[in-house]
Design brief:
It is built from 17 helices and 20 strands. The protein is an alpha/beta fold and 537 residues long.
């Protein structure tokens, strides 16, 4: 999204809220639940919130700015603006360092310059080894349980360590006695320990791990298991989406670090003179924004997608929206759809499934093979069932604008979310928030973090059970309208009540407690020896 004078904040609230049946109701805004950082905020992430790019179509090569359009980045941006904070990230825009100062800093957003964006200039070798290498060829498959896809390349881990050290040095440049350092995700497993050792002892360090944490049996295949755990235990606070990942982490620490003291009841670890509290907080989406986009979507966008792909406007629509990633269970979904059409010929010609796939990490062979297999399977199934005027599966990996995706979300009678494993899965929540007519159905894998929040009102699927999966598709399509609306209303209640703003506010509540603990030298209510201590999970 190109920068404009008027910004949309994911945490902005107005005086309207969304009814689960699709209407509106007035409300009193609860300002007490807005994210509020207790100290000077330093965010650390791989991706940056603003990217400066040259316009190659312009002879003068003017610079444009891409700004956040959703998710965590858009949610944290206004918090940084309110706190005059600092954001440290990899600068991957071709004009990023031409607009920055000698320290690689630039004031953002362009309209106000409310906070500092510090960019790290990573070499191609660093990006290839730290990001494409250890992060996504080791940690990603490991944490998702695909140990057969682990790919250890020479020097990847050393580059990972080096880049983590570079980020830690940048944090130390900006940290003061009152700082809160909030690290995002698995790209920085080693950085917390280095940061802890290089910033004032009164500053707090927190991290949210957005992907699953594996069982000890799986984690032992990690080529740097002890170093990863020691790095993460540099945090005062470590967050996961759901309880089982937090418990897996504690068990891994217990087995791999004999000198660590793990308190499973209080969900704390004491190691090397420091204490780490482990919390589970499921992340939400900007539900109001998705609802607003769906309500305002131009119908012509949907018509264009349908006409381009030969889809009848009268079709019953199924939808899948995924990155082309081996964790997402797309082949299993296609197998279930094939079985469904095989056993339910009455739906041939009247039900069409649209699979939107986004190419991802295409430089990694496992992803290349996966994408090729998915496309081949779609072609094979279509050859088996297609007629002159109907295809069972429409596949696209083309870019879809936000408005077009919003229209598809709203129009889809059935949404299938079938990962083999997923830390949370925000697509399921995006679909629910976009179902402003409260008339769709969600099929949701029981192997996602989202299932713990939404599973009781979704159609639960085991993505590896082809027959059962196919039956659930038929169940969803055959469900009476009143039952569909009851389920979707309940789902919308949950998604709107626990949105991205709630998640961030809850995170900052915990961060405030560890920050107070640091500020008061261990006398806060987060001290595990205090009788007032309450368990975080």
């Amino acid at each position: 999204m190109r920068v404009t004078d008027e910004r949309l904040s994911s945490t902005n609230t107005d005086n309207r809220s969304i009814r689960t049946d699709g209407g509106d109701r007035s409300l009193r805004t609860d300002r007490s639940r807005e994210p509020n950082c207790p100290g000077s905020l330093i965010v650390v992430s791989n991706r940056q919130p603003y990217r400066h790019e040259y316009d190659e179509s312009d002879d003068e090569r003017s610079v444009s700015v891409d700004e956040p359009t959703g998710g965590l980045t858009a949610g944290l941006d206004p918090v940084c603006q309110r706190t005059n904070g600092t954001w440290i990230a990899w600068g991957d825009g071709d004009a990023d360092f031409d607009v920055a100062d000698d320290r690689h800093c630039v004031s953002v957003p362009p309209s106000s310059g409310a906070y500092t964006l510090r960019r790290l200039d990573l070499s191609e070798d660093a990006v290839d080894s730290y990001y494409r290498g250890f992060s996504n060829r080791v940690l990603w498959p490991l944490c998702h349980g695909f140990t057969d896809l682990l790919e250890e390349r020479p020097n990847d881990f050393e580059w990972y360590r080096s880049v983590n050290d570079q980020f830690a040095t940048a944090v130390a440049d900006h940290a003061d006695d009152d700082s809160v350092v909030w690290i995002q995700d698995y790209h920085f497993a080693l950085a917390p320990r280095t940061i802890r050792d290089s910033i004032p002892s009164s500053a707090a360090v927190a991290q949210f791990w957005h992907i699953p944490w594996p069982t000890p049996e799986t984690f032992r295949d990690c080529p740097a298991a002890v170093g990863i755990l020691e790095g993460l235990l540099g945090n005062d606070l470590l967050g996961f989406h759901v309880d089982r990942y937090a418990k897996n982490f504690l068990e891994c620490v217990e087995r791999a670090l004999p000198s660590a003291t793990v308190d499973r009841d209080r969900h704390t670890v004491r190691y090397d003179g420091e204490a780490t509290t482990v919390v589970a907080t499921p992340m939400g989406v900007d539900a109001k924004r998705y609802d607003r986009n769906a309500r305002s979507a131009d119908p012509s966008r949907l018509s264009s997608v349908f006409s381009t792909n030969g889809v009848s406007s009268e079709t019953v629509l199924g939808l899948g929206v995924d990155r082309l990633d081996y964790t997402k269970g797309i082949p299993e979904r296609l197998a279930a759809l094939e079985r469904f059409f095989e056993r339910n010929p009455r739906w041939r010609g009247s039900f069409t499934f649209v699979q939107k796939a986004t190419p991802s990490r295409t430089e990694i062979p496992a992803y290349q093979r996966y994408g090729e297999f998915v496309r081949d399977e779609v072609e094979r199934i279509n050859r088996r069932f297609a007629t002159e005027d109907w295809r069972p599966i429409v596949y696209t990996d083309s870019y879809l604008e936000t408005e077009t995706l919003a229209a598809l979300y709203r129009r889809a009678e059935v949404m299938i979310v079938s990962p083999l494993v997923d830390g949370m899965n925000l697509v399921a929540q995006e679909y629910v928030a976009s179902s402003s007519d409260a008339d769709g159905t969600l099929l949701l894998s029981d192997r996602t973090g989202a299932h713990e929040r939404l599973g009781s009102h979704a159609f639960t699927i085991d993505p590896t059970d082809v027959d059962g999966f196919a039956r659930r598709i038929d169940d969803a399509l055959s469900t009476p309208r009143h039952e569909r609306r009851r389920r979707m209303s309940a789902l919308r209640n949950r998604v709107f009540d626990r949105d991205i703003g709630w998640w961030m506010a809850t995170q900052f509540d915990w961060i405030r407690r560890v920050h107070d603990d640091r500020q008061h030298e261990g006398h806060s209510d987060l001290d595990p020896d205090s009788p007032e201590y309450t368990s975080p999970i």
